[in-house]
Amino acid sequence: MNKYELALVVNAKIEDDARAAVVEKAKEYITRAGGVITEVEEWGKKKLAYEIQKMSDGFFYFIQFDGSAAAPAQIEQKVRIMDNVLRFLCVRKDEA
After folding, report:
1. Maximum CA extent, the chain
2. Sequence-ordered list of residues with C-beta below 8 angstroms from that of 75, at least 6 positions apart, any chain
3. What pLDDT was estimated at residue 94?
């Protein structure tokens, strides 16, 4: 099992309940792909470096998980089509 991190930038204009639902859905995709979530960090609302879909703010979430080598591709395929996710990135973390 490799260690991965999924970074999500979620629409800041939606309600708190909807934002929590987006993060829960992403966590569900991770567990469906055989991943085990180890930590979820919420960085809160931050100003974006440039506008994305005419929005200048976004909520940042970082989800650490352990999974197989095929897991990131499966997760990205699902997260790519999610509403209210402005940007995402799934990277493998170093062992060091």
Report:
1. 39
2. 6, 26, 29, 30, 33, 35, 90
3. 82
The token pair at 89 is: 């990135």
Q: How far apart are CA 94 and CA 77, in angstroms?
A: 23
Which pTM value belongs to this model?
A: 0.91
Residue 18 pLDDT: 94
Please say whether the beta carbons of 10 and 84 come within 8 A. yes
Report the alpha-carbon distance of residue 48 to residue 86 in Å, rounded.
11
Whole-number Å distance between alpha carbons of 1 and 47: 34
Instruction: Report, as ranges of residue numbers, the positions in the chain whose pLDDT lies below 50.
Output: none
Beta-carbon contacts of 7 under 8 Å, excluding residues fewer than 6 positions away, are 60, 61, 62, 87, 88, 89, 90, 91
pLDDT value at position 1? Answer: 87
Asked if 43 and 62 count as a contact pair (C-beta separation under 8 A), the reply is yes
